[in-house]
Amino acid sequence: MKRLLSIELQKIWLNKASRILTLTYFILLSFIALIASIKFNIGNIHFQVAEMGIFNFPYIWHFNTYIAAIFKLFLAIVIVSMMANEYSYGTLKQNLIDGLSKEEFILSKFITIIFFSLCSAVFVFVLTLILGYSFSSYTEIGIVFSDLEYILAFFVKLVGFFSFCLLLGILVKRSAFALGFLLIWNIIEGIAKAFLNFRLFPEGKTAGYITQFFPLESMANLILEPFSRLSIVKSIGTQMGVENLKDYSVHFSSIFIVLCWTMVFLFLSFKILKNRDL
Fold it and tell me: What is d(CA 196, CA 148) in angstroms, rounded to the nearest whole number?
């Protein structure tokens, strides 16, 4: 497995575009720390974002993983390009000629996905601890590590999303078209979700029960938006008579659905590669 990972990392690092995108991704993750420096001065009112409590433990685990997940598209481009380059440069056929089986080829891609997802999770974990201990009003150990499941959800979300991108890269062969297909799929899910919510099942939870099994929707359900969870937002909502009953916790069922989709993506990737004439 170490050999397979080494091969893939060399391919990525030797490709200038992939190298720049990978570095850009981790640099952008670091920029989460800059949110703490944002200040607003409106007349006599001086306001700093960090004072809103977004860097308080345990809320910061939710906030940072949600924001970090937004930048996953940069690595998604790397994953798709990684596959597209195999066809463009003929390295896929050469790897197979050199004795690499198709099973090992897919495994090497998946190991790379696991590696990038794990590095991202560890990076966000360390960054969150640094920001939390710098700005949080609560630093008791029990509070600090009480919402660590968001890191697990972040890791699973990246693995599932990148596996989907791998499938698209194998299916379409061209990175631009693969990313275009990803956008189209997202739009299709959005239309289907709106149809279920507003036409078929405008009342009750039936629509939500169905849409939770959509690939991209299942990934989105792992980490819900954290902004309405802030006390200041809740206070405004209460004054306006809006009651927030949203469940922000990470559910095992959501993780299980994404893991199932991940296995489906890998299986389809292997089947397509196995049946395709290279």
Answer: 33
SS3 state at 42: strand
User: Per-residue pLDDT tens for 72-105?
Assistant: 988 888 888 887 777 776 676 777 767 778 888 8
Q: 131-169 b/e with 16+ CB inside 10 Å = b?
A: bbeebbeeeeeeebeebebbbebbbbbbbbbbbbbbbbb
Cα–Cα dist 37/28, whole Å: 15
Half-sphere exposure of 103 (CA within 13 A, CB side): 0
Could you give the 3-state DSSP secondary structure of residue 246?
A: coil
**Helix (H) or strand (E) segment spanning residue 125:** helix 102-135
Q: Is the peptide bond before 226 cis (omega within 30 degrees of 0)?
A: no
Per the CB < 8 A criterion, the answer to whether 128 and 150 are in contact is no
* pTM, rounded to two decimals: 0.90
